[in-house]
Amino acid sequence: MSTHDLSGLDAAGWLEPVARRALGHYGVSDDATLTLLNISENATYALADPTSGGRTVLRIHRHGYHDAADIESELAWLTALRDDAGVRTPRVLPTTDGRLLLAMDQGGTTAPRHVVHFEWLPGAEPADERLTESFEMLGALTARMHEHALRWQRPTGFRRFAWDYDGSFGEEARWGRWQEGIAVGPSEREILGRLDATLHERLSRFGSDPQRYGLVHADMRLANLLVDGDDTYVIDFDDCGWSWFLYDFGAAVSFFEHDPRVPELTDAWMSGYRTSRPLPAEDEQEIPTFVMLRRLLLVAWIGSHSGTSLAQSMGAEYTAGSCELAEDYLSRYG
User: Could you tell me which residues are beta bridge partners of residue 113?
Assistant: First the structure.
């Protein structure tokens, strides 16, 4: 998988004119202030409109990750979660002619540039000093979303990709090949190759029963929660798709899987989860497998997103840490 079109170091420079062209479709003033919040699988901007005094968020999609049906399916689920299950998610703001998804022509490309406009939500990521309590809340929210996914009647044409073994490490390898991660040399390839094989075996054995496998957020981290007083909002459904429900816990400890507090946070997450949905003991025992599934995926992600600031900040150190975690996991599960 080659570096994608928003991963280059020059992306911020050419993205703003694209964002500005989108403003007119939403009735936003040309004088609006655009502040780039993040570039990852897509680019997100904070908009401040001096005419209306309103603040909103504009998301510009990269090419090759989602097509229109995929994005429309994401928007359908986050809307249904808010309407059916009371999970607070951002409202999608339509274009002036009523479209939730804008397909914008862009010179030099054959595919349209997809854009979504969201309401601005108040709040901030949960504070670090209340990490255990936050993980309990995260577990409870995650369980509510899984329960909704199990009973929701999806609209005709609903389509999202899968974070199963093949979608993670097979021919499609959604985030690229971990073998092409930063600083993956012969010794790292041997260790991580043993991890890959063990994950394949254990996931196959675990199976995809509907009580274990379904529609998940797939990036259900504290970074994607906004807490405002008694209100908590869930954002960034861009990666949502089909996977094991416990993959959402693997995502919850992304980038700090090695932290000595992870066992305590696991207990807190499970305690919260069980307030809304059963978590059998045999499923609980497999949680480390999903932590390592996500970790190996992130080695691949860092390699295929090398132009992003997050990938550059992780780099070789993350690969080395992944090998240490893999050896520990394999000593117990291999």
Answer: 104
Domain ranges of the chain: 11-119, 128-333
- Given a contact cutoff of 8 angstroms between Cβ atoms, the answer to whether 84 and 144 are in contact is no
For 118, other C-beta atoms within 10 Å of its C-beta total 19
Residue 296 and residue 235: Cα distance in Å, rounded? Answer: 24
Fold matches, 11-119 and 128-333: no
Report the SS3 class of residue 38: strand
The half-sphere exposure of 94 on its side-chain side, counting CA atoms within 13 A, is: 5
Q: Tell me the fold of 11-119.
A: Phosphorylase Kinase; domain 1 (3.30.200)
The residues, ordered by sequence, that sit 6+ positions from 303 with a Cβ below 8 Å of its Cβ are: 176, 177, 178, 180, 181, 182, 184, 311
Please state which of the four CATH numbers 1.10.1740.10, 3.30.1330.30, 3.40.50.1220, 3.90.1200.10 is assigned to the domain occupying 128-333: 3.90.1200.10
3-state DSSP call for residue 181?
Answer: coil
Backbone phi, psi, residue 62, to 5° = -80, 165
pLDDT single digits (tens) 27-73: 999 899 999 998 877 899 999 999 889 999 999 998 888 999 999 99
pLDDT in tens, 100-150: 999 998 766 678 899 999 999 999 999 888 999 999 999 999 999 999 999
The Cα–Cα gap between 330 and 252 comes to: 21
